[in-house]
């Protein structure tokens, strides 16, 4: 059907695996991006991307390649903090489809950020800080995030 409230194509396992492989190949060629690994778990429908970045310009550029965006700012920082500005461009018909709502509510989106400095505080109340104060963990319902991207926003205060 057409894009006016019809079918939404759900990618199969091969398409998802290929998209992750394509992302990894692109990311590894980008200046300032290293140690890119991807992992799929189709039993739990979990997809993991891990990478190291030299600077925020490289991190923003690599995140933009995931959704073929250009020049969108996903992360910013200064001497004392790191900020995530979330944006998930999702077709409205997916969020409005009652058949998809249950699946999306059961799904989670998780962001894990690890730093070489200690974390003093986090702005997002759903964040958890690891015992060693180096990692922030944020988990939200996929349905909620698709309706309101800002739920994944976070400002992380680091020790100077």
Plain-language structure description:
With 160 residues, the chain is α+β, with helices and mostly antiparallel strands. Helix content is 29%, strand content 31%. It is globular, with a radius of gyration of 17 Å. Mean pLDDT is 86; it is low at 1-6.
| Average residue pLDDT | 86
Count of beta strands? 9
Distance between the termini: 55 Å
Could you give the order of strands across the largest sheet? Answer: 3-4-9-6
In the predicted model, the low-confidence regions spanning at least 5 consecutive residues are: 1-6
Please state the overall shape, judged from the principal axes of the Cα atoms.
globular
Structural class by SSE content: alpha+beta
Percent range of helical residues: 25-40%
> What is the rounded Rg?
17 Å
**Quaternary status of these chains?**
single chain
Following the backbone from N to C, one meets helices and strands in this order, namely HEEHEEHHEEEEHE
How much beta, percentage-wise?
25-35%
Please outline the major beta sheet.
4 strands, antiparallel
Tally of helical segments: 5
Provide key terms for this protein.
160 residues, alpha+beta, four-stranded antiparallel β-sheet, three-stranded antiparallel β-sheet, 31% strand, globular
How would you sum up this structure in a few lines?
With 160 residues, the protein is α+β, with helices and mostly antiparallel strands.
